[in-house]
Amino acid sequence: MVDIDWDNLGFDVTPTKSMFRATCLENSKWEHGGLIPFGNIELSPAANVLNYGQGAFEGVKAFRTAKGNVVLFRVDKNAARMAFSTKRLCIPEMDTDFFIDAVTKVVKDNIEYVPPHGQGSLYIRPVVWGTSAGIGVKPASEYTFMIFVTPVGPYFKKGINPLSLKITSQFHRAAPKGIGNIKAIGNYSASLYPLTEAKKEGFDEVIYLDAAREEIIEEVGSANFFIFQDGKIKTPSLSGSILGGVTRDSVCLVAREILGISVEETDIYIKDIENSDEVFCTGTAVVVCPIGRVTFKGKTHVINKNTMGPITKKIRETILSIQNEEIKDTHNWLRHI
Question: What are the catalytic residues?
Answer without folding.
Answer: 183
